[in-house]
Design brief:
It comes from Marinirhabdus gelatinilytica. Keywords: Signal. Pfam families: DUF2807. This is Putative autotransporter adhesin-like protein. This protein is mainly β and about 240 residues long. The protein folds into two domains: about 80 residues, Pectate Lyase C-like (3 Solenoid), CATH 2.160.20; about 120 residues, 3 Solenoid (Pectate Lyase C-like), CATH 2.160.20.120. The strands form two sheets. It has a 16-stranded mixed β-sheet that branches. Strands 1-8 form a two-stranded parallel ribbon. A hairpin with a 2-residue loop joins strand 6 and strand 7. It is globular. The termini are far apart.
Length: about 240
């Protein structure tokens, strides 16, 4: 019986190998021939979420548009789908893109109130994004870089992700956890509430009021000379003036 199991396992392994079957990873490599494709914008969107390790570039315009620049065989697995006002930029059926020359998506937006990145994506916003209320969200090893002009700004970063935000905001709420980092030293804010935990780090630049809650190895660094600093941190967190 043991011999039979070994034989069957060997046959299965050889069969899968001969079929070039990729167990579990569902990975596709680019063919090296980069082409550009313009996608149709089927409805309005005010939110963009980039994921699946894609490079997403956002810029403001008078008309929304989507352009994909990628290896020719990757176009069919790069999805740009709008659902309930959110543009999702991701790969189809949880595909993983392996080696490629390009996997870029260029999005022109009219107005946005939320930008998000996840699953190893890089999201870069060109110019200054202006909004009354704006949410930034980055997770799972992704990166988000943006310049903003906002009244109220909420920034959430987790699971080893990085957010670099500059510009101006009246009110900032920043939350970082699980080894992530929010770099907002070039973002001038009037009032700020920062919460950090689990080895994460937040750096801010505050004019008036700063409220901090740091725990579990989290660090908050602040620039400026806020008139009031309220520190609710535990012993395992740190707050430092730069």
């Amino acid at each position: 019986m043991k011999t039979l199991k070994i034989i069957l396992l060997t046959i299965a392994t050889v069969t899968l190998s001969s079929c070039n079957f990729d167990i579990g990873f569902n990975q596709t490599h680019g063919n090296g021939n980069v082409t550009t494709e313009t996608r149709s914008v089927t409805e309005d969107f005010t939110k963009v979420r980039g994921s699946s390790g894609l490079d997403v570039y956002l810029s403001k315009g008078t008309t929304a548009s989507i352009k994909v620049e990628a290896d020719e065989n990757l176009h069919e697995i790069i999805d740009t789908e709008i659902q309930n006002g959110t543009l999702h930029v991701k790969t189809a059926n949880s595909h993983n893109i392996g080696k490629s020359k390009a996997k870029k998506v260029f999005v022109t937006y009219v107005a946005l109130d939320e930008v998000a990145s996840s699953s190893g994506a890089d999201v870069i916003v060109d110019g200054t994004l202006e909004a009354e209320n704006l949410t930034l969200d980055s997770s799972s090893g992704s990166d988000l870089e943006i310049n903003v002009f906002a009244k109220t700004l909420y920034v959430d970063c987790s699971s080893g992700a990085d957010i670099k935000v500059s510009g101006r905001a009246s009110e900032l709420t920043a939350d970082a956890s699980s080894g992530s980092e929010i770099d907002a030293k070039d973002l001038l804010v009037v009032n700020c509430k920062a919460e950090v935990s689990s080895g994460a780090e937040i750096t801010v630049n505050v004019k008036d009021n700063l409220e901090v809650d740091a725990s579990s190895g989290g660090d908050v660094n602040y620039y400026g000379n806020p008139t009031a600093v309220k520190d609710n941190s535990s012993k395992s967190g740190s707050v430092r003036k730069m």
